[in-house]
């Protein structure tokens, strides 16, 4: 990764004019900006947004201590959490150097400084900063989800989000099928938000959370005196969703007795309150969700087939998190950023073993599990890094860090050669033909991959 001098801005925070000059001369491959106290350092950070800072901890008014330096460090990091600060300390000052690292400094170097070593450290810091920036760009472009608060980069899931976008504006009944914690509720809300009904209400009822005896009154409402305790006329949840969207969550848990009543409502678009005679015409859009296998339930006689077809005018299967490529890490970054902003922590990143562990974990609880796991880790992590241990996850056996593109290509190339050679029983001319290369090229390739 080559960067030109102009793109490498280094801020030198140093109060001694002699050292300032010396440091300026030491870095001839970057643009050096200087500051001699906290105030000017912060002003320069705001103005130039340098990627790397070298900083003397002994700044005025505390040139012999480290209090001013550490305070400056904290403010710089609060302003730009990604900045790489290298702390310069006196020989006796190891404790303060470690304190600085604990606060989020990138590295430290002892005075009197060694220009060539310091240059190496600074270069590495620029490199890391650049990598992190590119990584973030990549993450942003990966998250191509058309539904703004639904994070995904998985091509299959993106297609599903696009389907949801498309059906949102129509009035068809949509049923979202998927494991618990896959985001069905988020998607149901998106269906409402993206529809023409968004100015009206979205009312949700979770069939699994309400006892069977109360569910009918909850859904359809009741008249005064309909049953003991029915003190006044009360509209049901469906009625409250008039002109809006009604979300029936865990519809697979709806008891058979109510399935008939729901079917009637879906067919005739009227409701009758419990104990009432009046038919109330309804204009609502219905969205359902369930983690149950409704077809299997039809087979076992616990779900009505006619209701199934009414509900699943369009059914959308939502894949489990483990089936979405790359999403676990994308979501981990998303939740980490969300929670760490709330916790007001300085700077917090995942260690390599944490990323490997996230990638290889099975996530049986899907997005909800990852959300809780990251929330806990942000609170538990002691330093500027979240480790696999903070996540409470098993470290991965093998690093799942992506191979370079070259490694990936090499692997596929080698496998293709082996397969082609096997298919033609080692006949070079025919293998070359099959692979669409000349014989000399094939020999070269075989040599490169050590194939005989
Ligand atoms: N792709 C996503 N991006 C960001 N947050 C998500 C995503 N998917 C789910 N979440 C969050 O994960 C949690 C669980 O999602 P949600 O409640 O929508 O799942 P569900 O499928 O309805 O689960 P259940 O069937 O158990 O009710 C919520 O806090 C939700 O905000």
TrEMBL record:
Sites where 4-aspartylphosphate occurs are at 56
Question: Would the keyword Protein biosynthesis be found if you checked this record's keyword annotation?
Answer: no
Tell me the first and last residues of the signal peptide: none
GO MF: ATP binding; sequence-specific DNA binding
One protein family per Pfam: HTH_8
Q: Where is the Response regulatory domain?
A: 9-126
What range(s) does the Sigma-54 factor interaction domain occupy? 150-379
Q: Name one GO biological process term.
A: regulation of DNA-templated transcription
Keyword terms of this UniProt record:
ATP-binding, Nucleotide-binding, Phosphoprotein, Transcription, Transcription regulation
Q: Which PANTHER family match?
A: ALGINATE BIOSYNTHESIS TRANSCRIPTIONAL REGULATORY PROTEIN ALGB (PTHR32071:SF113), TRANSCRIPTIONAL REGULATORY PROTEIN (PTHR32071)
Q: What is this protein called?
A: Two-component system, NtrC family, response regulator
Give the source species: Nitrosomonas halophila
């Amino acid at each position: 990764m080559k960067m030109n001098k102009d793109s490498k801005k280094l801020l030198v925070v140093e109060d001694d004019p002699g050292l300032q000059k010396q440091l300026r001369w030491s870095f001839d491959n970057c643009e050096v900006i200087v500051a001699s106290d906290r105030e000017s350092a912060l002003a320069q950070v705001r103005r130039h947004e340098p990627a790397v800072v070298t900083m003397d901890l002994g700044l005025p008014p505390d040139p012999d201590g480290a209090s001013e330096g550490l305070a400056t460090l904290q403010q710089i990091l609060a302003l730009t959490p990604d900045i790489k600060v290298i702390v310069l300390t006196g020989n006796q000052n190891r404790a303060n150097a470690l304190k600085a690292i604990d606060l989020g400094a990138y590295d430290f170097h002892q005075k009197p400084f060694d220009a060539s070593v310091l240059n190496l450290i600074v270069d590495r810091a620029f490199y890391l900063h650049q990598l992190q920036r590119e990584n973030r760009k990549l993450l942003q472009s990966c998250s191509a989800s058309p539904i703004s608060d639904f994070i995904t980069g998985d091509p299959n899931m993106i297609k599903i989000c696009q389907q949801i976008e498309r059906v949102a504006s129509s009035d068809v009944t949509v049923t979202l099928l998927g494991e618990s914690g896959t985001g069905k509720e988020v998607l149901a809300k998106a269906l409402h938000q993206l529809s023409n009904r968004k100015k009206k209400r979205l009312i949700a009822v979770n069939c699994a959370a309400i006892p069977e005896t109360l569910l009918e009154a909850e859904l359809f409402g009741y008249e005064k005196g309909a049953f003991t305790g029915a003190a006044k006329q009360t509209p049901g949840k469906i009625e409250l969703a008039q002109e809006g969207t009604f979300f029936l969550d865990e519809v697979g848990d709806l008891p058979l007795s109510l399935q008939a009543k729901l079917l009637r409502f879906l067919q005739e678009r009227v409701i009758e309150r419990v104990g009432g005679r009046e038919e109330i015409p309804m204009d609502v859009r219905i969205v359902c969700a369930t983690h149950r296998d409704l077809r299997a339930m039809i087979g076992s006689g616990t779900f009505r087939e006619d209701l199934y077809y009414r509900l699943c005018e369009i059914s959308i299967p939502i894949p489990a998190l483990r089936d979405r490529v790359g999403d676990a890490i994308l979501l981990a970054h998303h939740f980490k950023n969300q929670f760490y902003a709330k916790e007001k922590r300085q700077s917090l990143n995942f260690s390599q073993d944490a990323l490997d562990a996230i990638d290889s974990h099975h996530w049986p609880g899907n997005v909800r599990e990852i959300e809780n796991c990251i929330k806990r880790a942000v609170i538990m992590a002691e330093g500027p890094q979240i480790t696999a241990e903070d996540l409470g996850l098993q470290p991965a056996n093998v690093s799942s860090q992506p191979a370079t593109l070259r490694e990936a290509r090499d692997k596929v190339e080698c496998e293709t050669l082996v397969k082609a050679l096997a298919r033609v029983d080692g006949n070079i001319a025919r293998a070359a033909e099959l692979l669409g290369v000349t014989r000399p090229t094939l020999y070269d390739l075989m040599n490169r991959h050590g194939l005989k």
